[in-house]
Amino acid sequence: ETGVTQTPRHLVMGMTNKKSLKCEQHLGHNAMYWYKQSAKKPLELMFVYNFKEQTENNSVPSRFSPECPNSSHLFLHLHTLQPEDSALYLCASSQGAQPQHFGDGTRLSIL
Amino acid sequence: DQQVKQNSPSLSVQEGRISILNCDYTNSMFDYFLWYKKYPAEGPTFLISISSIKDKNEDGRFTVFLNKSAKHLSLHIVPSQPGDSAVYFCAARSTSGTYKYIFGTGTRLKVLA
Questions:
Q1: C-alpha span between B92 and B27 (Å, rounded)
Q2: I want to staple B52 with a disulfide (CB 3.0 to 4.6 A). Which of A16, A75, B31, B88 is the partner?
């Protein structure tokens, strides 16, 4: 299923770099989410947007900055990340009470 | 504190047999539970769900059972097939205004041919 597309699929960056992760959903959903998945840990919810408005910030450090210009696009801007931020970042979307649809993720490695 | 727990990190089952994956939760406000399946290099895909007003939901080879008093749910796959080999995540949703899902750590299922 390609309803939720994430780019890039892999990203390697230094701690002083600035980069952005992009998510696009073609399902007409009104909610979008960023999750972080680290090894042997549960998926951690980072941010939730409903109709472009941020409704959840799960105590995420300010070096992660989300942006939702419209209901179909979600970005995660990255700046001065730490090695412990290396993880799989997953985007998801949903409509109302329906289950979430996930993208394939961006594998991020911080050098 | 982890609100959704999958205590078995891995499970191996012979093809054709039943696979049983377990999940425990602590928050009595959860009203909806889901199972997701994840293949390597892909995102999780929704498999089956159950509302807290039910104790069983079946979809083909997949059945989810919910025991509210024990705060326990399980996913049964029968018969298991090699293509079922994946990581299975249990998730729970609370009744708060925003639909917020809490995930377990996952169980890696390997179905042996």
A1: 9
A2: B31
Q: Mean pLDDT for chain A?
A: 92
Q: Cβ B46–A94 below 8 Å, yes or no?
A: no
What pLDDT does residue A91 have?
Answer: 97
Query: Chain B closest CA to A15's CA: distance in Å?
Result: 25
Minimal CA separation from B49 to chain A, in Å: 8
User: CB under 8 Å to A28, separation ≥6 — which residues?
Assistant: A95
Spatial distance between the Cα atoms of A16 and A4, rounded to a whole number of angstroms? 29
- A55 with B46: Cβ contact below 8 A: no
B23, pLDDT greater than 80: yes
d(CA A104, CA B16): 29
Contact B49 A99 (CB under 8 A): yes
